[in-house]
Amino acid sequence: MKKNRGRTGRKRRRKHLQGFVDGVNCSHKLEYIKLKKWLKDRGFEDSILRPAEFRETGRGLMATKALQVRDLIISLPEKCLLTTSTVLSSCLGGYIKKWKPPVSPLMALCTFLIAEKRAGEKSPWKPYLDVLPKAYTCPVCWEQDVVNLLPEPLRKKAQEQRTTIQELYLSSKAFFSSLQPLFAEDTGTIFTCSALEWAWCTVNTRTIYMKHPQRECFSLEPDVYALAPYLDLLNHSPNVQVKAAFNEQTRSYEIWATSQCKKYGEVFICYGPHDNQRLLLEYGFVATDNPHSSVYVSSDTLLKYLPALDKQREAKLSILKDHDFLGNLTFGWDGPSWRLLTALKLLSLGGDEFACWRRALLGDIISARNQQQTWNTATQICNCLIEETQRVLLQISQLRRSKETLNPQLVLVEMLSLEGLKILQKSAEVLCNWNVAT
User: Fold this and answer.
1) Is 269 within the bounds of a domain?
2) Is residue 288 part of a domain?
3) How many CA atoms lie within 13 Å of 383's alpha carbon, on the beta-carbon side?
4) Distant-in-sequence, close-in-space partners of 368: CB < 8 Å, separation ≥ 6
5) At residue 179, what are phi and psi to the nearest 5 degrees?
6) Cα separation of 419 and 407, whole Å?
7) Of the residues 205, 227, 249, which one is the last residue of a structural domain?
8) How many structural domains are present in the chain?
9) Which one of 191, 207, 227 terminates a domain?
10) CA pair distance 350, 337, nearest whole angstrom
């Protein structure tokens, strides 16, 4: 009898330990104990989720029991949410209400985060601030040497974000100075460009969508942000779906499961059907096995393959621009996108075929010659991008040896580049098969 009980006990322990192979429970850490107490004081009750470290995704939330479809994953009371209402009810409220021209809802939240972070122990939001990332892995925070390795469309967007933050900082300096009565030290040492970058990334990567009524004290930009402590520890997976919304009856933000999750498994939500370039830009990570991933073809790359002597060159460009066919041109896991092929089909129209441009935009077959030229150009572009990606991977390898401090950033670029290479190689196969088939 004893022997049997011992064997059963070992089985139970083994099963229990197996549950933690992918996730290590972190709820015993002081920062999470303080956060849970702080949330409980504001009406939050939770017995399903635990903070954990996962091998693949890092910090996330673990299920303490198996979750079924339609189970309530989390219900976060309104008192726990950080919104512009929170900001206006703080000591910043009076200054924001009288400042002209009005600040944006985004700027109000950024200002609040910087001020509360500086307040330290005196901040009522300290338990939440303590679990926020100290730094972010989004390209907007990267060294320029690493940003330069990104694919052109993504590089351009990262640089646009950086410019946005710099312009926001410069245009807000006078507003920051108006807050001087609230601080013993010079506001210039508190509201720095790097502090704003951290706050901007906090809002950009962690807010949930929650529409608020328009207020006169804010500019006309939509007020749709809410920071959701604890809930924002949930990681993204492109392969899950959840139902999420603010419940007016319970006055809580709720997330409901639409798929199952095993006990001790990581609970995921989906940020949207984003490809990895978008995920890296906006959230600072790359998802493995992302079915939405693609490689973008910039309009500049496209135009390299339009013959300079083509008499309809300008007319073709004008048509593509007018019909929004110069953007969102991609190669995917299943080959070149319909949009890319359509743009190339129009660019490949011969002089005697130009009158058929409307049919080309609808995807009609114009001629065997046009079809072949379209595939040939798509293949050329694909091969060019393959070579370019291989060059980038070589540069990454060299930088990782010479500048080890950049490794966390370089790892992300490498993941994106390796995925892009696989997509392009798959697309090259598809194009080759098409040619063989015809």
Assistant:
1) no
2) no
3) 10
4) none
5) -85, 0
6) 18
7) 227
8) 2
9) 227
10) 22
CB-based contact 165:197 (threshold 8 Å): yes
3-state SS, one letter per residue, for 57-81: CEEEEEECCCECCCCEEEEEEHHHC
Distance in angstroms (rounded) separating the CA atoms of residues 230 and 128: 8
Report the pLDDT value the prediction gives residue 311, as an integer from 0 to 100: 84
Give 435's pLDDT tier (boundaries 50, 70, 90). Answer: confident
**How big is the chain, counted in residues?**
438
Distance of CA 57 to CAs 23, 71, 154, 192, 202, Å? 10, 23, 23, 31, 18
Read off the tokens for 196.
């704003």
pLDDT of 22 strictly over 70:
no
Q: How far is Cα 279 from Cα 297, in angstroms, rounded to an integer?
A: 18
* pTM assigned to the model: 0.88
Same domain, 219 and 322: no
> Exposed/middle/buried for 299, CB within 10 Å: 0-12, 13-18, 19+?
middle
> Who contacts 412 (Cβ-Cβ below 8 Å, separation ≥6)?
137, 280, 284, 285, 286
**Contact between 38 and 128 (Cβ < 8 Å):** yes
pLDDT value of position 418: 96
72 in a structural domain? no
Residue type, 283: Y
User: How many C-alpha atoms does 108 have within 13 Å on its Cβ side?
Assistant: 35
Residue type, 284: G
Q: For residues 30 and 35, give the distance between their C-alpha atoms in angstroms, rounded to a whole number.
A: 8
Output the CA–CA distances (angstroms, integers) from residue 162 to 21, 145, 155, in the order listed: 39, 14, 11
The pLDDT tens digits of the residues spanning 159-170 come to: 999 999 999 999
Cβ-Cβ contacts under 8 Å for 114 (sequence gap 6 or more):
190, 191, 195, 196, 198, 199
In a domain, 45, yes or no: no
Rg for the chain, CA atoms, rounded: 26
Nearest-angstrom CA–CA distance, 380 and 435: 13
Closest-CA residue to 347 (of 327, 383, 367, 319): 319
Place of tokens 């200054």: 95
Query: In which domain, by residue range, is 223 found?
Result: 82-227
Q: Check: CB of residue 87 under 8 Å from CB of residue 227.
A: no
C-alpha 119/C-alpha 93 separation (Å) is 16
Give the CATH number, domain containing residue 171. 3.90.1410.10
Spatial distance between the Cα atoms of 327 and 307, rounded to a whole number of angstroms: 20
